[in-house]
From TrEMBL:
<dbReference type="GO" id="GO:0016491">
    <property type="term" value="F:oxidoreductase activity"/>
</dbReference>
<dbReference type="InterPro" id="IPR002937">
    <property type="entry name" value="Amino_oxidase"/>
</dbReference>
<dbReference type="InterPro" id="IPR036188">
    <property type="entry name" value="FAD/NAD-bd_sf"/>
</dbReference>
<comment type="pathway">
    <text>Carotenoid biosynthesis.</text>
</comment>
<dbReference type="Pfam" id="PF01593">
    <property type="entry name" value="Amino_oxidase"/>
</dbReference>
<protein>
    <submittedName>
        <fullName>Phytoene dehydrogenase</fullName>
    </submittedName>
</protein>
<dbReference type="InterPro" id="IPR014105">
    <property type="entry name" value="Carotenoid/retinoid_OxRdtase"/>
</dbReference>
<keyword id="KW-0560">Oxidoreductase</keyword>
<feature type="domain" description="Amine oxidase">
    <location>
        <begin position="23"/>
        <end position="495"/>
    </location>
</feature>
<dbReference type="GO" id="GO:0016117">
    <property type="term" value="P:carotenoid biosynthetic process"/>
</dbReference>
<keyword id="KW-0125">Carotenoid biosynthesis</keyword>
Length: 499
């Protein structure tokens, strides 16, 4: 995608966008800006998709994403419309970026200060400070080449890779091995390996199934920084909705689409409530499998049920949103709690699905940075444990697992929460499936395994229905808020190129 994608060809088209996640919001902005008449239909009562907000008893939780990474992507997005993120929300650079507790009692903080991080690495392994510099240099190179040539530029066909420019970036070939081997080439200490690999959870993968080119995530977290938008990620949703409204997008919430009929120039999109919307073009940001399997007749699907069953889906999650009396001084805004050997946890996600007995998890305490997310004298905290998609999820299992997580937090971070919880809610596999129509209750969609990266992900344009397009985490470039924003631009370009 160029800095200024040429999508003027969509002017005068009418478009229905199904789903108001970041991908749907983004593509709606690009299309409306180019002159299209855009209506966005969202199933739920609020916009933002996985970035929904839960508000109760004076607490306001971001229900999904909480790490604001890759600020350059947001600048480029708003920049396309002659705006900047600061016109819509304010960012705070977090310090520390995050804290890690290992379950052997060890604890480290990763800071924006690289001298500190080098010393930290050196303390675990002589020479690891220099190795960190070398690793991050490579990660930066991967980021720069990868973003310009593979992320902002869509390459939906194999032949798009067979040109001289692309082959010149032979870095790609060496980075198609697995993350595990790549990281071992730099660091021997398992804890240092974990620090370079935890970001894979953002991509829904594990060190043994994710290609090494995703080392670029370490450039994102160490060099570019970890930010917090005041008001939470929900403030970013509000900002993009405001921009979309300025551009003329019409939003309809509580509008679950039940069926898509027709083709380019003559679509009818029906909602469960009995309303019908007519459009020239349809873009679905709803889960890809749901759109094809539930909204289209069989002859208009590109993929079979077997195709979806054979894919590797990213983890689901057990989420525990807690309103707590008092402070939680042991925790940072972002805290990771990791077993010293985490292979078993990954195995319980990808190989042999089960609720993990010794979980690796993430704790988010935005009230450390933002006093508006909790009543005075209280903390806003959520725990996120990645678990296998499709896992059995019952109220009893959740109750049992709540105990496991609260015990683990107390034991490994010294934070005793039980007696001071004043608000509590869980969200798990069944909720992902019900609220977002997510396949198997995956939190994130298709994992970024090598066979599910780039042209191996489902395409933006349906090859079975003329005029139907897709946007969001299951298509390219993939998972995460910045990627879904980029996906919106790529889908808009694909529409302009193919109508
Ligand atoms: C717990 C969690 C933590 C995360 N943490 C981070 C993070 O820290 N940083 C980060 O960058 N990313 C994070 N992510 C990933 C990120 O949130 C997602 O990749 C991204 O938000 C997905 O956007 P999307 O465009 O794919 O749309 P989605 O968010 O999936 O939205 C799709 C929308 O379609 C709607 N829909 C579905 N079916 C229909 C229908 N039939 N009719 C109408 N509407 C329909 C859904 O209700 C939903 O609103 C996290 C995700 C989760 C779940």
């Amino acid at each position: 995608m160029d800095a200024a994608p040429d999508i003027d060809a969509v002017a005068d088209e009418s478009v229905v966008v199904i789903g108001g996640g970041f991908g749907g919001l983004s593509t709606a902005c690009y299309l409306a800006d180019a002159g299209a008449d855009v209506t966005l239909l969202e199933k739920n009562e609020q916009l933002g998709g996985r970035a929904s907000r839960l508000e109760a008893e004076g607490f306001r939780f971001d229900m999904g994403p909480s790490w604001y990474l890759m600020p350059d992507v947001f600048e480029r997005f708003f920049g396309h419309f002659g705006r900047s993120p600061e016109e819509y929300y304010t960012l705070t650079h977090l310090d520390p970026h995050y804290r890690v507790f290992w379950k052997d009692g060890d604890r480290v903080d990763v800071l924006p200060d690289m001298a500190h991080n080098r010393e930290l690495f050196e303390a675990y392994e002589p020479g690891a400070g220099d190795a960190l510099d070398a690793y991050l240099e490579e990660a930066e190179r991967t980021y720069e080449i990868g973003m310009e040539h593979f992320v902002y530029e869509d390459r939906p066909r194999l032949r798009d890779y067979v040109d001289r420019d692309v082959l010149r970036y032979s870095w790609g070939l060496s980075l198609l091995g697995k993350m595990q081997g790549h990281v071992e080439g730099y660091f021997d200490h398992p804890k240092l390996q974990q620090l370079m690999q935890y970001t894979l959870v953002f991509l829904g993968g594990s060190p043994t199934n994710t290609p090494a080119l995703y080392n670029l995530m370490s450039h994102v977290d160490f060099n570019m920084g970890v930010y917090y938008p005041d008001g939470g990620i929900g403030a970013v949703v509000d900002g993009i909705v405001e921009l979309a409204e300025e551009l003329g997008v019409e939003f309809v919430t509580d509008a679950e689409v039940a069926g898509i009929e027709g083709r380019y120039g003559a679509f009818a999109v029906d909602t469960a409530g009995g309303d019908r919307y007519l459009a020239d073009i349809v873009v679905s940001n709803a889960d890809y499998a749901h759109t094809e399997q539930a909204l289209l007749p069989e002859r208009k699907r590109q993929y079979t049920e077997e195709y979806w069953e054979s894919r590797t889906f990213a983890p689901s999650a057990f989420l525990l949103y807690l309103g707590v009396e008092g402070d939680v001084p042991e925790l940072a805004h972002h805290t990771l709690v990791l077993p010293t050997r985490w292979e078993e946890h990954f195995a319980k996600i990808f190989d042999d699905p089960a609720w993990p007995d010794d979980p690796a998890y993430y704790l988010c305490v935005p009230s450390k940075t933002d006093e508006t997310v909790a009543p005075e004298g209280h903390s806003n905290l959520f725990a996120l444990v990645p678990i296998a998609p499709g896992l059995e999820d019952t109220p009893e299992l959740r109750e049992e697992y709540r105990e496991v997580v609260l015990d683990d937090i107390a034991e490994n971070t010294g934070t005793e929460l039980r007696d001071r919880i004043v608000f509590e809610e869980t969200f798990c596999v069944e909720d992902f499936a019900d609220r977002y129509n997510s396949y198997d209750g995956s939190a994130l969609g298709l994992a970024h395994t090598l066979r599910q990266t780039s042209l191996f992900r489902p395409p933006h344009r349906s090859n079975a229905v003329d005029g139907l397009y897709f946007v969001g985490g299951t298509t390219t470039p993939g998972i995460g808020v910045p990627m879904c924003l980029i996906s919106g631009g790529l889908t808009a370009e694909r529409i302009a190129d193919t109508i």
